[in-house]
TrEMBL record:
It comes from the Bacteria. One of its GO terms (molecular function) is monooxygenase activity. This is Flavin-binding monooxygenase. Its EC number is 1.14.13.8. Its cofactor is FAD. InterPro entries: FAD-binding_MO, FAD/NAD-bd_sf. Keywords: Monooxygenase, Oxidoreductase. The gene is almA. The keyword Transport does not apply. Belongs to the FAD-binding monooxygenase family.
Length: 363
C-alpha cells in the first residue's frame, strides 16, 4: 500500500481525482473523487490479487544496495530479509525503481527554536500513531494538502475524536480550489440502457479529467492573471460570511508556480466558518511552554503541534547505487523523461507528474 499503508492521520486522502489516480487497466468504480486512504489501499490490494501480483512479492525484504557490472551485464541487489535477519543477493538484467520519492522512515522536519520548552505533543503526520487530539487545541504548521486535509477532519462533528480548536499556521498562502466530492457520471454513462460498458465509460471520463486538468494548468501558465482572478473568486464565494480574510489564500506567486490544492466540497472553508478553526499567516519566532510565539508578537496556544512540513526526498528506497564499483548520487544525474538515469544502464526509476496524477506518468 505504500503511502496509503504508512499514513494514518485523520482524513488521509488523495489530492488527485480518483479516475486519473486509479490504474488505466482497472477502473476506479467508486463515486468519491478525492478518495480516502483506506479506500485507495483496498483498491491497490484488490488489484494486486486480481492480477496475481501478490504471489511475486517478498514481504519484509529491503533492497539495501544495487550494483551494476558492465562485464557481467547485470545488476546485483543486496537484500535484507528482516524475517530471518539474513542478507541475500538477487541478480537481474533490468531494475525498475517504483519506491516513490520520499523517505519512509522520517518526514521533513525543520527545527524550531525552544522546541524543548513546549509541554505538549509535537507530531509529524508521517508518524501519527495514536496521537490524542480530542478536545485539545491544535496548531498545524503548514499550508499544503496534508494541512488542508487534517484541519476539517479534526473538527468534523461526525468523528468520534474532535479537536476543541484547530489553527492552520502558514508562512505563505497556497492557492486552493473547491472541487466536487462525488462524480456519478460513471454510473449514468454505463447505466442499463447505455451502449457503454463500465470500462468504456471509465476510459472516456478519465480522458475528460486529463484534458480538464491540463487545460487548467496551461491556462494558469499562459494567462496567470485570469486564473488567479478565477481562483480568488471561488475562494471569496466559499469564505462569504465566515469572517476569514482572503489574504490567507492569496499567494505572492502565480497559480501552478507551486502545486494547487484541491478540497472536496469546500470542506476546508466550511471548517473555517464553523468557529472551531482558523488560519494564520505569519512566521514562527519560537516555541513556548504553551504554544508558539509568532514573529508578529501574537501567541498561539496549543496542546498539540502538528508539523505538516512535508516529506524528506529519497529515491530507490534509500538503496546505495553503484555502477562498476563507483557510487552514484541520483540527485546529481540528468534524467530522460524522468525515467532513465544518465550513466546508469538498464534501470528505470519511475517518477510521476507534479501537475497531474502520479499514476498517469507511471502508466
Amino acid at each position: 500500500g505504500g503511502t496509503w499503508d504508512l499514513f494514518d492521520y485523520p482524513g488521509i486522502r488523495s489530492d488527485s481525482d480518483a479516475l486519473t489516480f486509479g490504474y488505466r487497466f482497472r477502473p476506479w468504480l467508486d463515486h468519491k473523487m478525492l478518495a480516502g486512504g483506506a479506500d485507495i489501499k483496498r483498491y491497490i490490494a484488490d488489484t494486486a490479487r486480481e492480477y496475481k501480483v501478490i504471489e511475486h512479492i517478498r514481504y519484509q525484504h529491503e533492497v539495501q544496495q544495487l550494483s551494476w557490472s558492465s562485464s557481467g551485464q547485470r545488476w546485483t541487489a543486496m537484500v535484507k530479509n528482516y524475517a530471518t535477519d539474513e542478507t541475500l543477493s538477487i541478480t537481474a538484467r533490468f531494475v525498475v525503481g517504483a519506491t516513490g520519492y520520499y523517505d519512509y522512515e522520517s518526514g521533513y522536519r525543520p527545527h524550531f527554536d525552544h522546541e524543548a520548552a513546549f509541554l505538549g505533543d509535537i507530531v509529524h503526520p508521517q508518524h501519527w500513531g495514536d496521537t490524542n487530539y480530542h478536545d485539545k487545541k491544535i496548531v498545524i504548521i503548514g499550508s499544503g494538502a496534508t494541512a488542508m486535509t487534517l484541519l476539517p477532519a479534526m473538527v468534523d462533528e461526525n468523528n468520534t475524536a474532535r479537536a476543541r480548536h484547530v489553527t492552520m499556521l502558514q508562512r505563505t498562502p497556497t492557492y486552493v480550489a473547491s472541487v466536487a466530492g462525488d462524480d456519478r457520471a460513471l454510473d449514468w454513462l454505463s447505466a442499463r440502457y447505455s451502449p457503454l460498458s463500465k470500462q468504456h465509460a471509465y476510459t472516456l471520463l478519465r480522458a475528460r479529467n486529463v484534458l480538464m486538468q491540463q487545460g487548467i494548468y496551461q491556462a494558469a501558465r499562459h494567462a496567470p492573471k485570469a486564473m488567479k482572478a478565477l481562483l480568488q473568486y471561488g475562494v471569496k464565494k466559499q469564505l462569504k460570511g465566515s469572517g476569514v480574510d482572503i489574504a490567507h489564500f492569496t499567494p505572492p506567486y502565480n497559480p501552478w508556480d507551486e502545486r494547487l490544492c484541491a478540497v472536496p466540497d469546500g470542506d476546508l472553508f466550511a471548517a473555517l466558518g464553523s468557529g472551531r478553526a482558523d488560519v494564520l499567516t505569519d512566521e514562527i519566532s519560537h516555541f513556548t511552554k504553551t504554544g508558539i510565539q509568532l514573529a508578529s508578537g501574537q501567541h498561539v496556544d496549543a496542546d498539540v503541534i502538528v508539523t505538516a512540513t512535508g516529506l524528506q526526498l529519497q529515491m530507490l528506497g534509500g538503496a546505495d547505487l553503484h555502477v562498476d564499483g563507483v557510487s552514484v548520487d541520483i540527485g546529481t544525474r540528468m534524467t530522460y523523461k524522468a525515467v532513465m538515469l544518465d550513466g546508469v544502464p538498464n534501470m528505470a526509476v519511475l517518477f510521476g507528474y507534479t501537475n497531474a496524477s502520479w499514476t498517469l506518468k507511471a502508466d
